[in-house]
Amino acid sequence: MTVSSGQTYLAIPGPSVIPEEVLRSMHRAAPNIYEGELIEITESLIPDLNYVARSSGYVAMYIANGHGIWEAALSNAVSAGDHILVLATGRFAHGWAEMARKMGVSVDILDFGKNRAVDVQVLNEKLNSEPKSKYKAILMTHVDTATSVKNDIASVRKKLDEFESSALLAVDCIASLACDRFEMDDWGVDIMVAACQKGLMVPPGIGFVFFNNRAKERQKSLTSVSSYWDWEPRINPKFYYEYFCGTAPTHHIYGLRTALDMIKKEEIENTWKRHEILSQAIWAAIDKWSLDGDMSLNVKDPIERSHAVTSIRLGGKNGTKLRQWLQTKSGLTIGIGLGMSEAGDPNGDGFVRFGHMGHVNAQMIMALLGTVETGLNAIGYKHGSGGLEAAGKVLSSI
Ligand SMILES: Cc1ncc(COP(=O)(O)O)c(C=O)c1O
Question: How far apart (Å, rounded) are the C-alpha atoms in residues 109 and 84?
Answer without folding.
Answer: 9
